[in-house]
Amino acid sequence: MNSRKAIRTTHGADGFSLYLKKQRALAESALKRSVPAVSARPSTIHQAMRYSLLAAGKRLRPILTLAAAEVCGRTDVKPTLPAACAVELIHTYSLIHDDLPCMDDDNMRRGMPTCHKVFGDGVAVLAGDALLTRAFGLLATLQPPKRYPLSQIIAEAAEAAGSLQLIAGQVADLEAEGKRLSIADVRFIHERKTAAMIVLSLRLGAMMANAPLRQLGALTEFGKSLGLAFQILDDILDVTQSSEQLGKSAGKDLTAVKSTYPAVIGLEASRKEALRLTRKAHAALEVFGEKSSRLAQIADHLLGRTY
Ligand code: GRG
């Protein structure tokens, strides 16, 4: 990572790579157990769910859930895993539906043909529906600590995935195609389509660690800045990287005439904005002191990513 991108780290870079690898492996093995086996009838739907869910995703959201629980003092990760999996299931559902011909119409996702290309539109819609439903089933198994009742946790997940956040962002995005948006409108979409699920991932981890409100608030602020920075990077990568590098179709935003950060304010200003937001994310971690270095490293890592 070059010096413009790296902001703060207290663990070594090698330690961080190992940490990411370990957390990813933890998430992967929990995800494999989180949905029915292919042998469960009807096999097709479980094949489709597992095909998209277990493909090569970055696992950012479950990693954030686990890191948030850890920074708030939860050392035993096992009880947080269903929450970590739930956010990844909701995220995967949204990717499957976004790729459908009636939405973004994409052929490639996570380095493979999209779900509907392999299983057909009907099964892909249902695989998304089943992942979303299963996510709430997983949340219902959580045993949260005193401060946060299960009803609050489930309501927060419903809000983040619902028509005021994730779906709001998707609808605004669909309606914006071919139009020139202001940067405030682009930000409105990004905050809902991307940042809301990232904030949810962090809040679920914090709530599972019985975090005091001050810590929960700090992670919410961290997530809002990180989520927006992450989406700006996504917009930048769409115009600067190849499809092979991204594992999904590059240049889609240009073809679909989408108003993105680079389209509205230019590439260089977008890079500066992503850096400013990453700094803001770091500042939100101050309440945790040195304990937050993993989250700070994740923010730096995302700013420096190339896919
Ligand atoms: C269909 C309700 C509904 C919502 C769709 C996910 C989505 C909203 C649209 C996909 C396109 C897009 C730019 C979404 C913003 C969020 C985002 C950057 C998704 C990709 O997340 P990554 O990079 O993907 O973490 P992996 O595959 O690594 O998990």
What report would you give on this structure?
It is built from 15 helices and two strands. The chain has a two-stranded antiparallel sheet with strand order 1-2. Strand 1 and strand 2 form a beta hairpin. The longest helix has 28 residues. The N terminus is likely disordered.
Describe the structure concisely for a colleague:
By secondary structure, the chain is mostly helical. Helix content is 67%, strand content 1%.
- Low-confidence spans: 1-10
* Rg, Å, rounded: 18 Å
Task: Give the helix proportion (percent range).
Answer: 55-70%
Number of strands: 2
Between the first and last Cα atoms, what is the distance in angstroms? 14 Å
Structure class? mainly alpha
Strand and helix order: HHHHEEHHHHHHHHHHH
How much strand content do the residues show? Answer: under 5%
* Small molecules in complex: geranylgeranyl diphosphate
Give the strand line-up of the largest sheet: 1-2
Mean pLDDT: 93
Main pleated-sheet profile: 2 strands, antiparallel
Shape: globular
Count of individual helical segments: 15
List the helices and strands and how they pair.
Elements: H1 13-34, H2 43-53, H3 60-71, H4 81-99, E1 108-109, E2 112-113, H5 115-119, H6 121-139, H7 150-161, H8 166-176, H9 183-208, H10 213-240, H11 243-246, H12 252-255, H13 261-265, H14 267-284, H15 293-303
The protein binds geranylgeranyl diphosphate.
